[in-house]
Task: structure prediction
Amino acid sequence: MKHSVLKPADRVETAAVVATLTNQTCDQPENIRPWGHYEQLAIGPRFQVKSIVVIPGGKLSLQSHYHRSEHWIVVEGSAIVTKGSSSKLLTENEAIYIAVGEVHRLENPGKVPMRLIEVQTGAYFGEDDILRYDDDYGRS
Result:
């Protein structure tokens, strides 16, 4: 897969970046999960960009992270985002910010796959930086 590289000097609108990343395709997802899959699109010293697809009815664990924050932009379908004790429905072209340490969950209430672009910022992006509080798939 070929990745586009954006330089800090480039003044690109968020919508243009999302459109570029969304139009990239992958024959086989890199990381399949019970709720769907994700694909790493770009990585740098203090950021990582992923495309995340959640199947209808699928949901990620209720979780938090010690070392990263996340910006989510829904590009296809709709998502229910839980932050702390409140939940919010997001539809295409809506975004939300998840701060470091904030308890959160993502789920797809729709009948079609939901895709979002996730921009992580921080010092560490490993999958072991997930503290799970609740998980429908029995992961700890």
Notes: The longest strand covers residues 68-76.
